[in-house]
Amino acid sequence: MSTKRIYLTPFETTHIQYLHKWLNDERAIQMIGRTPLAYEEVVQEVEKKRMNNDLILGIESDEKELVGWVFLKDIDYAHGRASIGILLSSESRGHGYGQMAMEQMIDLGFKQLRLNKIYLTTRGINEQAIELYKKIGFITEGKLRNHAYVDGKYVDTYFMGILASEWNK
């Protein structure tokens, strides 16, 4: 039995073409809550993250294939907190890459950046992600009722967080 691993690598400009495809995936649009984006808009979004000093990393598989990206944004050193986000290619979902990438990024945030809290928001319909976040150790801190409109109906948005003191990896 082989153990799959992932590696967090610098997110390069050449990776934007893949991100453009992933962001325009039908499921990603539904879960993230975006409209389809033109390539230039994705370039602008990545540049905005870089200008904001967000930590953006690519997720590579054992086969050196880029399978997603993970990032810490809104990094606030004064208050010791940041928001985490992740997106995997549709082909890479369900293989454990998301959990491994999130755990590595959380570890980096707590141990290297010395953050006290990492948080996220997710839609209530994204049940697979919510279960993953709970498995990792995130606690549901709040629910915004009927906060997003998806496929003709309103859905809840959850605010989840994990503290450095709760992280024992």
TrEMBL record:
The lineage of its organism: Bacteria, Bacillati, Bacillota, Bacilli, Bacillales. This is GNAT family N-acetyltransferase. Residues 6-165 form the N-acetyltransferase domain. Transmembrane segments: none annotated. GO terms for molecular function: acyltransferase activity, transferring groups other than amino-acyl groups. Pfam families: Acetyltransf_3.
